[in-house]
Amino acid sequence: MAKLSEKEESADSKRMSDRGPLFDLLIHDLTGPLSVVATSAASLLQRTSRYGPLTDEQKRLMERIVRNVRKAQTMLQEMIEIARSEEGLFQKEWFPVEGTLKEALMDVLETNVPRMVEELGSAKNQEEYKKLLASHGIFIAMTGKYSQSPFCHDQKKVQQIFRNLISNAMKYRRSRMEVCISGDAELCVSVEDDGVGIPSKDQAVIFERFVRLKDKSHSGIPGLGLGLTGVKALLETMKGEITLTSREGAGTCFNVRIPPLSSQ
Questions:
Q1: Cβ–Cβ contacts within 10 Å for residue 5, how many?
Q2: Which of 22, 102, 167, 180 is most buried by its number of CB atoms within 10 A?
Q3: Distance separating alpha carbons of residues 242 and 209, to the nearest angstrom
């Protein structure tokens, strides 16, 4: 493996120091309150015999609370997984890539398009499921070894990578997003959208923390500029890689390569 320059070593040390005692305290102090809010909101929705029935408007508001608490819990779990990966902590397991991809997609849709989740839940088989996705401009293609055989790595971390790339594509697409899984040794993933693209001057910094594109075409799109940073941090510890190809007005494609944990 190539030796890091002094500048790279310094930057790497700073990233590690940024996630010190204060970071651990933040995770600890947020976990409990979020769990209480999630449990309480779910009880109000589900235990009407004890707490009384809700009006339609109250139910919609409670469902919104539940969705956003789940989103916050997911973000917290992602922070934990990044911290664990930097400490070299991986849960080695064999898991189906297609099922993990589906869970990641449903996580994104649950937060952003909950009605679509209900629609997909009614699909009778895989063919109908893909047709419903296509009707919403979402396309999934799987080839290679891992379309049939399980992949060996930390499933939570792989799912987090899928989830962030899908979420990013869903936010920036015009009408279409395509996810392609391939590879016979390493797991290869590409996530492509038909959005406005990323200017070449911004492509070098897109993975840095808190970087958001500021041009008018990206205004109003929610986010903190941390998703791609987290994906890159995970992949670095997993000895993987992420690259992108993009042209203004022609969309963006992120390409990910993940070696199986068994070969590391």
A1: 9
A2: 167
A3: 16
Q: What is the spatial distance between Cα 201 and Cα 185, in angstroms, rounded to a whole number?
A: 34
pLDDT in tens, 163-181: 999 999 999 999 999 999 9
Which residue has tokens 């893909």? 130
Dump pLDDT digits (tens) for 187-201: 999 999 999 898 888
Spatial distance between the Cα atoms of 231 and 241, rounded to a whole number of angstroms: 10
78's tokens: 């992602």
